[in-house]
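$ run holo --ligand "nicotinamide-adenine-dinucleotide" --emit tokens
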Amino acid sequence: MKIAVAKESEVGERRVALIPDTVARLVKQGIEVLVEAGAGERACFSDATYEAAGAKIVSDTATLWGEADVLLKVSPLQERGDGQHEADLLHEGQVVIGFLDPLGTPTLAQRLAERKITAFSMEMIPRTTRAQSMDALSSQASVAGYKAVLIAAAAMPKYFPMLTTAAGTIPPAKVFIMGAGVAGLQAIATARRLGAVVEAFDIRPAVKEEVQSLGAKFIEVPIEEDTVAAGGYAKEISEAAKQRSREVVAEHVKTADAVITTAQVPGRKAPLLVTEEMVAQMKPGSVIVDLAAEQGGNCACTKPGKDVLVNGVTVIGPINLPSSVPIHASQMYAKNVLTLVQYLVTDQALNLNFADDIIDAACITHAGEIRNQRIKDALA
Ligand code: NAD
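-- output --
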């Protein structure tokens, strides 16, 4: 069996789907691993390190994509600089694994189904204990939460920690984290490590204990409706409940030096948590980092990929933050992908047991069909 690692073509993507350590693990199992020349370069893994791990370096993209039984990617397949779409480099029966954005870009799934490709979407790995080591959404969200705090700290005209010095006492920064899922919890932990006083808010009451165990104060918003959907995700709440929660959090936004927003509802536009009026109430010099920038933004002033200054408040809408920590983001992603590959491959043959909940959920196209109703609905 041949497994190939593609060089990412998305602008700004620095991650790579396998790092040399994980290549060595597959080679040890008797699998032939092909790596596109330069695939790991932007994550600081040279071709020589892949070769030393037992991979074969392939310079020609079409050869690599054509020969692979299983092709590994990070970003979704897309049109390349030369005008060719990556999906057209694949042929019937091949397997592709990556973040394929099936709900955001369902036309890609359609294209892969038409070409009879078996596609596994890392976004669709179930968030269960059994699938935890394959959960790339979590591993990458955790990188984003960490980096968001560093961006806020770097952009702020103040210290994060409390300092008692001969030149006077500096009070600690006040950081408010909105959305305490995987990214939000990592943001809390990072802001605490930097010495900030941290408050956090989420519509799922279950996160209160996790927030408190990280040393942050949980801001309670009484919401008299069910906020939790299947799988532990948040549900879209009513406009009235959103308004009520904005009223409660407004005071905390107003007094914060940094606000990190991470709120998402799967398959939906990100909820608006910070209105223009709330930004206008903030102190000059304060910073908002909006991790939901690519999904429409949690802040009304966010511009994806841009830093904007609104009445002295810097609103930052970063894009693809995991890619800005490419060594460790790739290391964790590679571990997630390796675990999935090892789960799928037995004695060098693909074992597609659709009765298995992980395989059933993550495999979005097979034998010419889109296998997921939500993707079909998104196409309709
Ligand atoms: P996510 O990225 O979809 O959302 C981030 C956070 O935003 C969530 O905590 C959500 O509750 C919150 N949110 C949504 N709407 C909001 C609003 N209007 N106001 C404030 N906050 C809002 O979530 P995620 O980080 O991917 O994780 C979601 C869930 O999945 C959590 O329950 C998490 O514990 C669970 N999970 C389980 C596992 C596992 O069991 N292996 C792994 C990862 C995540």
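-- notes --
The longest strand covers residues 32-36.
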